[in-house]
């Protein structure tokens, strides 16, 4: 988990500023790098050893959070940082705890928090169906989505995303994308789906037969991942539709996938040269006055 080095209060702006360790890379940029190589017809897949090391460290970090009664609730590639050159080279850091909540706190649905757009692509199906009492399993689903994306360089449940600021958790296009990849869940595979608040809407808007030829096996076979491989079997456990049957972070860390070569390493780059460009502090298109303001703050705090 990213380390918060210091907290600053800006009394004039009535704002709180948090200073975290700087990580030179994140999974969004790393995956984008590999996706661009495919688009340029010079495909460079993420090394399988690197994928395994990334997944192991993500699971280890989430296990730490879950063991301390914290749900992250907004896991996605942009929130998974990777340290560059230095003493922690190649170490994963889980960032952006803005939606994190303690288990024993009253949990509000994501849409009931701030009126901002949170990506739906990594959101578990029980959330999309209006689950009011959700569990650690929502983080596990998101990790499964990230794992699939590391393997394919494509978001597995990518769909058209409008500017959604409604309190209604049901999102037709996102569910359609999930079912198009996974197939429509059979009653025996997810018995409690009938208890979901949005189940009547699901029944009204979807036909099971539409997704009769869809399965995770077929989707991953297109990306040359064999259904009997340990990598696929773990992915299948992470992306189990029924949250009560979804694997836990602790169970996933003990999966046979991590026992076969190449073994996971603490440096996800495995000592090799890092080919990825560094993350930037500010985008080039950000207002100049914002850059100047940040510079003033840095001078005030650190004498830079």
From TrEMBL:
GO CC, one annotated term: nucleus
Enzyme nomenclature, EC number: 2.7.11.22
Keyword annotations from UniProtKB, A to Z: ATP-binding, Kinase, Nucleotide-binding, Nucleus, Serine/threonine-protein kinase, Transferase
Reactions listed under catalytic activity: L-threonyl-[protein] + ATP = O-phospho-L-threonyl-[protein] + ADP + H(+); L-seryl-[protein] + ATP = O-phospho-L-seryl-[protein] + ADP + H(+)
One Pfam family of this chain: Pkinase
GO MF term (any one): cyclin-dependent protein serine/threonine kinase activity
Keyword Nucleus attached: yes
PANTHER family named among the record's database cross-references: CELL DIVISION PROTEIN KINASE, CYCLIN-DEPENDENT KINASE 19
The name this protein goes by in its record: cyclin-dependent kinase
